[in-house]
C-alpha cells in the first residue's frame, strides 16, 4: 500500500470510530434515563397504590410541552411553586413541617425530611398525593387531573398516554411507520400551506399522499383512536392522539379496518383503513378529487393546538421503512 494513503485511511477510521462511540454512548444514556424513570414510577406506585402508568403519562405530557432547548430531566413534572410551598411561605422553606404549616402540597418522597421541588422522588410522591385527594379509581384520577390542569384536552392526552403505556408495559416507544403501505404505488410532495377553496379560502394543513383506491392506510405511531366518522372536508377520517402530544389526522379514506373503534390503542403499522376520495359534501360523497390520503399533524403545547408541516417526518419514516 502507498504510504501516503496510510495516514488518511487511519484518520478516517479514527473519525468513524469516534462517531460510533458517541452514538453508542448516546444510546446508553437514553436507555439509562428511561430505566431511571421506570424505576421511579414503580417506586411511587408502591408508595401511593396509583398505577405507574399515570405518573409516566403525566411526566410525558409535561415534557412535551416544555422547550426542547432545555436539558432533559429524569422527571419533567413542574408543580407550581405556590402550590408546593404554600401561600405565605415566601422563603420557600423545604422543611415538611413548614410546608404543612402553610398548607403546601410538597411531600418528602425519599425520606430526607425535606420536600425539594427539584428532587424526582419528591416530585412524583407529591403528585401522587395530589391525585390521592380525589381517590384511586380511574374516574377519581380523571377528576383529579381536571382539577389540577383545568383543561379537557390535557386530561384526555394523559388518559390516552396512560392507556398506551399500560398496554405495552414500557415507556420507550420510538418506532414509527409511513402512513400508507410502501408495497403499493404512491406519490407525494410538500403540500402543507397550499391554498384550498372548498368551504372558503383556507390553507392546507397536511400532506396529500396519492395512491390507488384500497391502498392500506397505517398508523404512524403509538397512540389512541380519538376520532372516527364523517367530516364535511375530510370525508371518512380517523384521528389518533399519540404519546408526544401530537394529533394525527387521516382523511378521505374509503373505509375503516373492520375492528377499528374509538378508544382503541394502536401501534406503528396497524392498518386503520384504506385510501379513498371521500369528502367535500354530505356523508357518502366521493370522487370529487383523485384518491389520496390527507395526513396532518397537530401539536398541543399545553395551552393550544396548532398544525405543523408533516413532510419532513414522512420522508424520514419512508426512508426508515425502505431500509
How would you summarize this macromolecular structure in one to three sentences?
With 323 residues, this protein is an alpha+beta fold. It has helices spanning 3-48, 52-63, 81-85, 96-101, 120-132, 138-149, 152-168, 311-322; strands at 186-188, 195-196, 202-203, 207-211, 216-218, 223-231, 235-242, 246-256, 265-266, 271-275, 292-300, 305-308. It contains eight helices and twelve strands.
Task: Classify the helix fraction into a percent range.
Answer: 25-40%
Helices and strands, in order, run as HHHHHHHEEEEEEEEEEEEH
Q: Which descriptor suits the 3D outline? A: elongated
Mean pLDDT: 90
Strand percentage: 15-25%
The unreliable regions are 12-16
Let me know the number of strands. Answer: 12
Distance between the termini: 34 Å
What structural class do you assign from the helix and strand content?
alpha+beta
Major sheet attributes? 10 strands, antiparallel
Rg on CA atoms, Å: 24 Å
Count of helical regions: 8
